Structure to design on (81 residues):
């Protein structure tokens, strides 16, 4: 569960970027969710780059979430002791 929130956030960020850049990432989302039967997805350099950014943003989000949980847990522990 902790990894799903950052990955969904990274994926939605790339969909937002695609609304401006129009590289075809939104068609990728439609193809994965079967939202339309005529969605055709092809990989090009821009969509491969966006896929890499999804992974990088997801890993960064997971690391930040882990750091935040540890910082909060330490603060609660030391306040109680």
């Amino acid at each position: 569960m902790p990894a799903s929130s950052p990955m969904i956030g990274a994926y939605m960020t790339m969909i937002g970027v695609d609304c401006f850049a129009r590289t075809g990432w939104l068609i990728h989302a439609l193809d994965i969710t079967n939202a339309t039967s005529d969605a055709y997805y092809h990989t090009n350099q821009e969509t491969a780059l966006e896929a890499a950014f999804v992974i990088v943003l997801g890993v960064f989000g997971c690391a930040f979430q882990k750091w935040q949980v540890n910082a909060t847990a330490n603060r609660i522990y030391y306040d109680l002791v």
Observations:
- The mean pLDDT is 78.
- Residues 4-80 form one domain.
- The CA atoms of residues 16 and 38 lie 22 Å apart.
- The chain has one domain: 4-80.
